Amino acid sequence: MFYWVVKAILAPFLHLVFRPWAEGLDNVPRHGPVILAGNHLSFADHFFGALHLPRKVISLGKSDYFTGRGLKGFFTRLFFSGVGTVPIDRSGGKASEAALRTGKRILAEGNVLGIYPEGTRSPDGRLYKGKTGVARLALESRAPVIPWAMVNTFEMMPPGRPLPKFGIRPGVRFGKPLDFSRYYGMEDDRLVLRAVTDEIMYALMELSGQEYVDKYAASARIEMERARRESVG
């Protein structure tokens, strides 16, 4: 209920001020489990990614969003709860398995699960290599996978910018469902998981028009920060 209250309050304001657009809404099933696999350009994706959908989108977010203290921690928890985020431990190992179980439970209940396969926001607006958790979920749950491409949100609110730029219209494109039935029963094959993930990322590249980089976004961010420190030093 809280999700719909937040959406009812924010949606008119966002439509009036930013005039967001959406394409391919009919590609998202109206009922049943769905995986929305998206690129992640900006904090603004949390606002505009699901804005036009008539269904609630549940996403998996790091547990740090829900453990902060004081007034800031309270409003952070309130915001992420309001946009449908479920806290998970993303430290790897057993934590990754727990995240997978949570995602499967959400899908088994017939919900829409939003996932960012890159694992973090793009540091420079390009599309980075996807992690294979999305492939595991797709094959084990057998839920349809819809590519979910954010457009212009990086230009409007790049990482590190506290407030969005005005005059830039954010958009989202929903692609055709991807069929991975040929891989069902092969979710323990690492090569299959990589092939499924790469197919999802290719579909996102075509929808978003982004340049693709064959490395993980987290690694690219570390390299950029190191290069910046060296240039300053």
Written overview of the protein:
This protein has a seven-stranded mixed sheet with strand order 1-8-7-2-5-3-4. A two-stranded parallel ribbon has the order 6-9. It has one domain (2-232): Glycerol-3-phosphate (1)-acyltransferase, CATH 3.40.1130. Strand 3, helix 3 (70-82) and strand 4 (85-88) form a beta-alpha-beta unit. Helices cover 42% and strands 16% of the residues. The longest helix has 19 residues, at 190-208. The model has no long low-confidence stretch (mean pLDDT 90). It is globular. The protein is of the alpha/beta class.
Order of helices and strands: HEEHEHEHEEHEHEHEH
Distance between the termini: 52 Å
Percent helix, as a range, is 40-55%
Biggest beta sheet attributes:
7 strands, mixed
The coarse silhouette is: globular
Structural class assignment: alpha/beta
E-strand count:
9
Strand order of the largest sheet: 1-8-7-2-5-3-4
GO biological process, one term: phosphatidic acid biosynthetic process
Protein name: 1-acyl-sn-glycerol-3-phosphate acyltransferase
Domain Phospholipid/glycerol acyltransferase: 34-153
Pfam family, one: Acyltransferase
